[in-house]
Amino acid sequence: LKSKLPALGTTIFSQMSALAEQYQAINLSQGFPDFDGPEYLQGRLAYHVAQGANQYAPMTGVVALREAISEKTQACYDYAPDVNAEITVTAGATEALYAAITALVRSGDEVICFDPSYDSYAPAVELSGGVLKRIALQPPEFTINWEQFAALVSERTRLVILNTPHNPTATCWSADDFAALWQAIKERNIFVLSDEVYEHICFSHDGHASVLAHPQLRQRAVAVSSFGKTYHMTGWKVGYCIAPAEISAEIRKVHQYLTFSVNTPAQLALADMLRYAPEHYQQLPHFYQAKRDRFIKALAASRFKILPCQGTYFLLADYSAISDLDDVAFCRWLTQEAGVAAIPLSVFCDQPFAHRLIRLCFAKQDATLDAAAQRLVSL
Ligand code: PMP
Ligand code: GLN
């Protein structure tokens, strides 16, 4: 068989979680909470199952959920996307990203992304015959050089993929970044794919800056989110994308033959949660900021150097004072010998700095974080 993706193996998330299991390590690698989502949400799922909401949902998503998403978007970003034409519910953010890239990128199109970037973008671009142009961001701030960005934009550029709050660097875009992006692309017919799955885990005083809050950019943008992150239910795999009607129509052509529709009772339960318990997502930054601060404080006595963390439930740690191993080898060693699993940064980019950094997930119970910190401090 001649592979269409010859350079690709199993994702690092599956690999590291399997290794953590094998060595009974504390798993701070793959990003998922070790606690459950709200009881109210679980109750609503059971309720809708019992009510018989167990057949196919509409292709674009259950109406009540699309309405609740529109209301929430209005409350957060002062913009209410059209319930029928502009919101599509997908099987997690992963499906929304894949469907959007497949719908927008044609063979030979150039796609700009930032290095490091989440691992699902590149294979989707490659399968569509697109050509990735990467802009390297440098630690510790990982800020964007907009002159460098402008130099990369050409008549071949079709799409820009960004992610804020950013996995894996834990940095966030500001409204100024979106303004700079608009200046750089406004003269050309370029689309924007804004991966905002951690929109409710942003620790900045100004809150999360969304592409949807930018009136011009949102006319060309696809904003992607995921209930897995917001409600501590990564296994439910329900996400969505918001895009202008013309773009949504193209994304739906892909979505209808990729999955067609998404789990009906989960969508109804999420609609109830969004509408009747908005305090959950409003309090989420505080919830995760407390975990971040607890973990960083506990690691202060270690030889790891922790990089600034403005959002997401990940942080980066520099281990150069502890080991000369490459990041991939260090993560294996850390799992097997120290009993803590982490993600090597070089899987998100092949920059030299990546080979001494690891990503740690702090979406864990306090007891798990304390136990992990104790092991890391002893190194
Ligand atoms: N984008 C980013 C940046 C992510 O971190 C993740 C999952 N951790 C996803 C997309 C995929 O989200 P989902 O699990 O809803 O498919
Ligand atoms: N997005 C999660 C992470 O960054 C993992 C998702 C997955 O395993 N595909 O850890």
From TrEMBL:
InterPro entries: Aminotransferase_I/II_large, Kynurenine-oxoglutarate_AT, PyrdxlP-dep_Trfase, PyrdxlP-dep_Trfase_major, PyrdxlP-dep_Trfase_small
Top-level taxon of origin: Bacteria
The keyword Transferase is assigned to this record: yes
Family annotation (Gene3D superfamilies): Aspartate Aminotransferase, domain 1, Type I PLP-dependent aspartate aminotransferase-like (Major domain)
Domain Aminotransferase class I/classII large: 25-376
Keywords: Aminotransferase, Pyridoxal phosphate, Transferase
GO MF terms held by the record: transaminase activity
Cofactor(s) of this protein: pyridoxal 5'-phosphate
The UniProt record lists the keyword Transmembrane helix: no
CDD domains for the chain: AAT_like (cd00609)
NCBIfam families referenced in this protein's UniProt entry, alphabetically: PRK09082.1
PANTHER family named in the record: FI04487P
Protein name: Pyridoxal phosphate-dependent aminotransferase
Organism for this UniProt entry: Celerinatantimonas yamalensis
